[in-house]
Amino acid sequence: MQNSHISFKRHRFAPQIIAHTVWVYLRFNLSLREVEEMLLERGIDVSYETVRRWIIRFGPQIARNLRRRQARPSDIWHLDEVVVNCAGCKFWLWRAVDQYGTVLEEILQKRRDKKAARRLLVALMKRYGFGPKRIVTDKLRSYGAAKTDVVPNLEHWSHKGLNNRAENSHLPFRKRERTMQGHRSPGSLQRFVSMHSATRNCFAVPARRRAAQTIRYHRLEAFDAWREAACIA
């Protein structure tokens, strides 16, 4: 699918600098001020507020373009939810990954119930245009109730020990969350997790590509994908 065009008009710095700044922030566990310092060391004098505005302005568009390039997921989906504190309130971040660890969907919701689980399943099938062969979850009963409503014949494995794939997918977000020291609003949190996961999907090395040379090729391919998604290729 073709990328949506990203315009860098009326910005003082070159598109390559802006895209690189957004990549550094989303790819690594760095604060805005740390990114500002790294840029200054390279002779680029911008404030951390400028970095923040670039991420808000260009990050979601780049993430959407990366997702358009994402390969069709496998037909085994792992679903899980994790609690997140945002603006002094408790929310649940519902996440789905495929059997290779690729993040398929993330939705921030107020509740941990059947309605929330159903929303995740519907969003997944709407985005990818097909239903999975199997879903794997923990023992939360909301998943089974939602599955009965949406796809009654779907195979469902429910066991705490089987869902490590989804639970492990929360770890990169948890590390990033500590660096960010909280979230100001549910909207900004939803926006960030979408950008963060799209970037991680692009650059994370699959388990089947662990040889040194293949890791290098994978990263080169990821750099090319990022430049094309940012419309600077």
Could you please describe the fold and organization of this structure?
This protein has 233 residues and is of the alpha/beta class. 52% of the residues lie in helices and 15% in strands. It is built from nine helices and five strands. It has helices spanning 15-27, 32-41, 48-69, 114-128, 141-150, 164-168, 170-180, 186-203, 212-229, and strands at 76-86, 89-98, 103-109, 134-137, 155-158. It has a five-stranded mixed sheet, sandwiched between helices. The model has no long low-confidence stretch (mean pLDDT 90).
Shape: globular
In total, the number of domains comes to: 2
Report the CATH topology name of the largest domain.
Answer: Nucleotidyltransferase, domain 5
> Average pLDDT value?
90
Number of helices in the DSSP assignment: 9
CATH superfamily of the largest domain: Ribonuclease H-like superfamily/Ribonuclease H
Which structural class do the helices and strands define? alpha/beta
Helix share bin: 40-55%
User: Got a strand count?
Assistant: 5
Please summarize the sheet with the most strands. Answer: 5 strands, mixed
CATH architecture of the largest domain: 2-Layer Sandwich
Radius of gyration of CA atoms, rounded to a whole number: 19 Å
Instruction: Please give the CATH class of the largest domain.
Output: Alpha Beta
